[in-house]
Amino acid sequence: MGKIYIQAAEQISIQNPLSEEWMEQPITYAEPFVKAVNPAFREYIAPNEARRMGSIMKRALVTSLKVLKETGIEHPDAIITGTSIGSLDYTEKFLDALTENGEESLSPTYFMQTTHNTVSSAISIYTGTHSYNTTYSHGGISFDLALKDAWMQINLGMISNALVGGHDEMVESYFELLQKTGYVGVEGMVPCGECAMSMMLNTQESSDNLCELAGVSVFRMRSLQNVGKHLGHLLKAAHIQIEDIQMVMTGVNGNPKNDRLYQPVLDEWFSLAQHLKYKHLFGENYTASALGLYAAAHLMKKQHMSVMLLVNCTMNGDCSLVLLKGI
User: Fold this and answer.
1) For residues 250 and 261, what is the distance between their CA atoms, to the nearest angstrom?
2) Angle at CA 245, nearest 5°, toward 188 and 231?
3) How far apart, in whole angstroms, are the C-alpha atoms of residue 222 and residue 76?
4) Which residues contact 21 (CB under 8 A, 6 or more apart)?
5) CA dist., res. 269 & res. 267, Å (int)
6) How many CA atoms lie within 13 A of 231 on its CB side?
7) SS3 track for 53-101
8) Which class for 103: exposed (0-12), middle (13-18), buried (19 or more C-beta within 10 A)?
9) How far apart are the C-alpha atoms of 197 and 171, rounded to whole Å?
10) What would the pLDDT profile of 28-72 be if each residue is shown by its tens digit?
11) Which of 36, 146, 161, 158 is closest to 82 using CA atoms?
12) Residues 111-147 pLDDT 10s
C-alpha cells in the first residue's frame, strides 16, 4: 500500500476565506449563529454564472478551483463530496415559492439546485471533469465517509488522486429548529457556522504536500472497547504506536451533550498527548470535521508535527478516526 498525501486544502468559513490567517489572527464571535465570510466570487467565477448559483455551490466551486490551481491538476480522478443538508437556502426558497404562488410560476433554478449532489456535479461541469463523481449525505459523518471513499479507492489502485470536499450552509429558520433540539445555540457553546472545504489527495510525493493521510476509520461508537478496537486496527495498518501520537484534535464545542463523547477516549488512551480543538475557530456544523482536517493538515505542515489523530464523534453515535503523519 503506497502513501497518500494531502496536497492542498482551502476553506471558506466564519474565518477569513481562502486564508490561513486564523492561525495568527482568528476572528472571534459572540453570536450563536454566524454566516460564512465570503470571498470576492467574481475573482473566480464569471458574474453572469455566479448569479445563478446558491451560496453553497459558489463556495464549493471557489475552494475547489483554488485547490486545482495550487496542485496543477485540471481534471482529478475523482470528485467526492460530503454534505449533510445540501443547498438548504435554495430548498427553503423553492418551498416558500411553492406555497406562496400556489404551485405556479416556480423558478427552475431553485429546484435544480436543491439536490445534494448538485455540488459535485457543478464542480465536474465547470471543470470539464468526467470521472468518478459521488456525494455522501450522512449527517455529521458525511465528509468522513467521502474521505474514506477516496482513501479506499486510492489504496485499491483505482485512482491516483481525488478532490474531496465538505460543504454545508445554514439558514436562520433551520438554526432555530436545531437550537430547540439542543444541537446548537446552547449557552457556552461555539457558534453555529457554515463550511466549505476542498482538498486534494494525491499519491505523488512532494515537499509541498501538507502531510500524509496515514489512515481513516469510520464506525459506530457502541462502546469504549469498540473505539479501542478500531483505533488498534488503524495504528497497526499505519505501523504507528499509540505512544507516537503527539496531538489529538477533537470536535469539542462547549455543548455538554457533544463533549461527553470525547472525554472517555482522551482519558483512556491520550492523557499524555496534547489535546487540540478547532470548533472554537470554525464553529459547529454538520461537516465541521472537514474544517478540522483542514486545520490539522496546515498545522502539521507549519509546526512540523510527526503524528496527529483526529477524532470526530456525533451525538447519534457515529465516529471517525483520521491519522496524519508529517512529511
Assistant:
1) 10
2) 85
3) 36
4) 15
5) 6
6) 23
7) CCHHHHHHHHHHHHHHHHHCCCCCCEEEEECCCCCHHHHHHHHHHHHHC
8) exposed
9) 19
10) 999 999 999 999 999 999 998 888 888 999 999 999 999 999 999
11) 146
12) 666 777 889 999 999 999 999 999 999 999 999 999 9
Helices (H), 115-274: 118-127, 142-155, 172-181, 224-238, 256-259, 263-269
What single-letter amino acid sits at 290?
Answer: A
Q: Which residues pair with 161 in a beta bridge?
A: 202
Query: What is the Cα–Cα distance from 153 to 134, expressed in whole angstroms?
Result: 13
**Each residue's pLDDT tens digit, 141-199:** 999 999 999 999 999 999 999 999 999 999 999 999 999 999 999 999 999 999 999 99
Distance CA 173, CA 192 (A): 13
- Which residues face 248 on adjacent strands? 275, 309
Q: Ramachandran region of residue 305, left (φ > 0), alpha (ψ -120 to 50) or beta? A: beta
Residue at grid coordinates 499505519: 238
Residues 6+ apart with CB under 8 A from 322: 144, 147, 213, 215, 216, 217, 293, 296, 309, 310, 312
What Cα–Cα distance (Å) separates residue 124 from each residue in 53, 164, 178, 186, 263? Answer: 15, 12, 32, 38, 41
Residue where the block lists cell 502513501: 3
Name beta bridge partners: 277.
Answer: 250
